[in-house]
């Protein structure tokens, strides 16, 4: 018997436990900034004075970035994911009743469980309930326009609302936002924090919107457009749109003090 | 052809827009909707540590303060421990201290304020001591993807001089953009900060 043979074996095979990568406390996948809008996007005029001119300083993730706030069901109220009822005063809001649902995933395809998703939008006429919005379309007395949900164990979320209307804004003389819902998502670490906007399939304002077209990557833009999802609609009640959100993937930590990742 | 790498791609960021308050701070938009609201007050009467007020402004490339900006902060407790399962460091956890808060700038004064405690020093995963700091995330109309920066403390000169992140900043003069200045006002400790989005005094922003 060759006495040296055992030394050639992969040391991992001698581990007492099977080698299973923990879903550990590694850093996040580097953000691919080529799919995100650049800070300075002159077609969206207010970005011109609000964009850094210096380079961002790349920071290897430490415990400060890998961690982030944890939320629970006691942070939310029972109607928080129902925009049809959570501000109703004397009836339902006016507009197309819709369900928006989907999963929060990370780049490895794993669902992001128990994470907070917040959303806000204009009413069916494109008017926001905000003291700074002066658009002439009226406020809907039964519509607030915001809600929030925690994802379940698989990363799934859903809420009910009315489809928002397009609205004009001061960029070019005749700029109109496509119908959209704003989303805020946390993930498990502060470096995954993301705010984005969901658009609706088939909206002809999408290709001419100076905010949406700040995104340089056609596929990344398409991923913000929620398809109609008849499978999830409720007959004689609500249509449904599906919107999956992908946050940065997280590297597992196989060995302490090694940054090789996997 | 090798096998394809089937990673998903991150969802693209979009600006939070001028009406971000509707979703994230409805009271600032002018209405009341949720039973429980998030706020800029991180402390309860039981929170351990030195009570501090963070107070500052965010300026655009002309030096004009943003009146529609929203900031979130994320920090460790007074023992240098983050309230998150991935932090297994030795400092004692305080269940009541989440370590996170959000604030909008005042529509008139443009001031952003937080009531919190001064965080303890943190040891990073390679064992290096990090100076006490607060992680800051900034969104607003005109900001296409949230900006990450940090606030350090002016009375932590020795720790700041040894901080591994501050020392990554090539130009020493730019490190000063991350130091909040300690003052005392009516018996309260106030750390003042200015975040310059653009220009000669531009704040250091991180790709975290």
UniProtKB/TrEMBL annotation, chain A:
Gene Ontology MF term list: ferric iron binding; protocatechuate 3,4-dioxygenase activity
Biological processes, Gene Ontology terms: 3,4-dihydroxybenzoate catabolic process
Signal peptide from the UniProt entry: none
Domain Intradiol ring-cleavage dioxygenases: 100-128
Residues covered by region (Disordered): 1-22
Entry keyword set: Dioxygenase, Oxidoreductase
Source species, domain of life: Bacteria
Similarity remark: Belongs to the intradiol ring-cleavage dioxygenase family.
NCBIfam families: protocat_beta
Protein name: Protocatechuate 3,4-dioxygenase subunit beta
The organism of origin for this protein: Bradyrhizobium forestalis
Gene, per the UniProt record: pcaH
From TrEMBL, chain B:
Protein source organism: Bradyrhizobium forestalis
Protein name: Protocatechuate 3,4-dioxygenase subunit alpha
A Pfam cross-reference name: Dioxygenase_C
NCBIfam families, per database record: protocat_alph
Top-level taxonomy: Bacteria, Pseudomonadati, Pseudomonadota, Alphaproteobacteria, Hyphomicrobiales
Family: Belongs to the intradiol ring-cleavage dioxygenase family.
One GO MF term: protocatechuate 3,4-dioxygenase activity
TM region positions: none
Alphabetized Gene3D superfamilies for the sequence: Aromatic compound dioxygenase
Repeat listed as a keyword: no
């Amino acid at each position: 018997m060759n006495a040296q043979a055992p030394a050639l074996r992969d040391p991992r095979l001698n581990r007492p436990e099977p080698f299973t990568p923990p879903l550990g406390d590694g850093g996040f996948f580097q953000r691919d900034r080529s799919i995100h809008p650049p800070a300075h996007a002159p077609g969206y005029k207010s970005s011109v004075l609000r964009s850094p001119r210096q380079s961002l300083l790349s920071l290897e993730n430490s415990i400060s970035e890998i961690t982030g706030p944890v939320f629970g069901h006691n942070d939310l109220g029972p109607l928080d994911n129902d925009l049809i009822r959570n501000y109703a005063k004397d009836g339902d809001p006016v507009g197309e009743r819709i369900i928006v649902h989907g999963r929060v995933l990370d780049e490895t395809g794993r669902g992001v469980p128990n994470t907070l998703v917040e959303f806000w939008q204009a009413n069916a006429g494109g008017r926001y309930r905000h003291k700074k919005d002066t658009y002439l379309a009226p406020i809907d007395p039964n519509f607030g326009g915001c809600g929030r949900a925690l994802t379940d164990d698989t990363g799934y979320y859903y809420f009910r609302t009315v489809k928002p209307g397009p609205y004009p804004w001061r960029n070019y003389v005749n700029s109109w936002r496509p119908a959209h819902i704003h989303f805020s998502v946390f993930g498990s670490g502060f470096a995954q924090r993301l705010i984005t906007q969901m658009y609706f399939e088939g909206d002809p304002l999408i290709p001419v919107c100076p905010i949406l077209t700040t995104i340089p990557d056609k596929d990344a833009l398409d991923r913000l457009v929620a398809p109609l999802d008849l499978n999830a609609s409720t007959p004689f009640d609500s249509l449904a749109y599906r919107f999956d959100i992908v946050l940065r993937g997280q590297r597992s930590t196989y060995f302490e003090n090694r940054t090789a990742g996997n | 052809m090798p096998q394809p790498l089937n990673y998903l791609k991150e969802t693209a960021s979009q600006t939070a827009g001028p009406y971000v308050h509707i979703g994230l701070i409805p009271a600032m938009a002018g209405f009341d909707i949720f039973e429980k609201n998030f706020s800029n007050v991180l402390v309860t009467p039981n929170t351990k540590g030195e009570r501090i007020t963070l107070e500052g402004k965010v300026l655009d490339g002309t030096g004009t303060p943003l009146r529609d900006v929203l900031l979130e902060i994320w920090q460790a407790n007074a023992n240098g421990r983050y309230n998150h399962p991935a932090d297994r460091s030795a400092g004692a956890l305080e269940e009541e201290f989440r370590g996170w808060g959000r604030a909008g700038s005042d529509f008139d004064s443009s001031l952003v304020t937080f009531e919190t405690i001064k965080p303890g020093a943190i040891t990073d995963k390679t064992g290096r001591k990090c100076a006490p700091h607060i992680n800051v995330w900034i969104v607003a109309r005109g900001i296409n993807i949230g900006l990450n920066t940090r606030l350090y403390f002016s009375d932590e000169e020795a720790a700041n001089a040894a901080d591994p992140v501050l020392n990554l900043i090539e130009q020493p003069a730019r490190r000063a953009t991350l130091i909040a200045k300690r003052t005392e006002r009516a018996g309260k400790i106030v750390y003042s900060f200015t975040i310059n989005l653009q220009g000669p005094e531009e704040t250091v922003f991180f790709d975290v």
